[in-house]
């Protein structure tokens, strides 16, 4: 029997996970019979069996025992999902102490362990022959944070404040009787940093990401199932909403009653899920839609209440350029800044392209040479634009 082992740490983590309500089930039962008041049974899902003892305090021991539960059915599929039960035993004279001191401490320590060791995940939907649409996950390790996101500091602060207000808004949402959720629409041309912004949001909030590939979802019912399986503290992301489905103009020509049969995914299905299901089950979830073509979207999709905050991801502005110069070249001011700023007002260049020009390519490159490279590229773009009769387009030829 292990004492104060890794297993014990794991049990604490499981208890904590249970108490945070992420889908695991915790039940404290009083056993019947002679030891009725003395034995609490904590029943929850574990992935592995454990046998450990622990000290309540010097001279008083508590025993933890994990044992296999009966599988719900004999088929192999369920056997794999066999559950384990966890029982805690101690002398009845310690019951109050266990209940009021020991278990709360274990849960608190467990929560701290989880927060310390927690690695965020990114989920994507896959179609399995056994379970239909389901989530598959990988560790989320995107390095982009608000600190490394070049943009106008005032806009950055506004977005960060908005996210903080949401994250700390549990009481507010309860008070006004609204589901604790918020919708963000990120729109702008390709390569203007939409994915980077989402990564920064997830890192800032410490949320998981559920990246829904709508083209792999075949019906409204499947979408509903997927959304129900998402956990709180998550960003539910639908990228390129205008490309995923015919969610743009089609709705105007279709009869909602005929569409929303549950047999295929439709715009009204999506809206129903957001409005109906979402409002009663959504807790601490953020919905993010992205698009390169905001004007094409059906207004019903992006109205406030569904998409509460619209964030335009535009071409590089002077403030964005200044933060890139600081990040890439470690310069706060330079004689070429004004000329660059002037040209950025005139031509459209993505942050991605500005960053590329500011990246030193050899050991001989320095802030002067990188800024000159950028200035030349901007000059060239301005000349092209002039030759083009003033047509707006990304000077580096990004796809629109
Ligand atoms: N604000 C920014 N600060 C720093 N780097 C950025 C910023 N925006 C974009 N980048 C860089 O530019 C590249 C493209 O950005 P990203 O993939 O986030 O754009 P996107 O709008 O999601 O593109 P697409 O529409 O093609 O998916 C990335 O390498 C990213 O690191």
From TrEMBL:
<dbReference type="InterPro" id="IPR058017">
    <property type="entry name" value="At3g28540-like_C"/>
</dbReference>
<dbReference type="GO" id="GO:0016887">
    <property type="term" value="F:ATP hydrolysis activity"/>
</dbReference>
<feature type="domain" description="AAA+ ATPase">
    <location>
        <begin position="180"/>
        <end position="317"/>
    </location>
</feature>
<comment type="similarity">
    <text>Belongs to the AAA ATPase family. BCS1 subfamily.</text>
</comment>
<dbReference type="Pfam" id="PF25568">
    <property type="entry name" value="AAA_lid_At3g28540"/>
</dbReference>
<dbReference type="GO" id="GO:0005524">
    <property type="term" value="F:ATP binding"/>
</dbReference>
<dbReference type="Pfam" id="PF14363">
    <property type="entry name" value="AAA_assoc"/>
</dbReference>
<dbReference type="InterPro" id="IPR025753">
    <property type="entry name" value="AAA_N_dom"/>
</dbReference>
<keyword id="KW-0460">Magnesium</keyword>
<dbReference type="InterPro" id="IPR050747">
    <property type="entry name" value="Mitochondrial_chaperone_BCS1"/>
</dbReference>
<dbReference type="InterPro" id="IPR003593">
    <property type="entry name" value="AAA+_ATPase"/>
</dbReference>
<dbReference type="Pfam" id="PF00004">
    <property type="entry name" value="AAA"/>
</dbReference>
<dbReference type="InterPro" id="IPR027417">
    <property type="entry name" value="P-loop_NTPase"/>
</dbReference>
<dbReference type="InterPro" id="IPR003959">
    <property type="entry name" value="ATPase_AAA_core"/>
</dbReference>
<dbReference type="GO" id="GO:0006950">
    <property type="term" value="P:response to stress"/>
</dbReference>
<protein>
    <recommendedName>
        <fullName>AAA+ ATPase domain-containing protein</fullName>
    </recommendedName>
</protein>
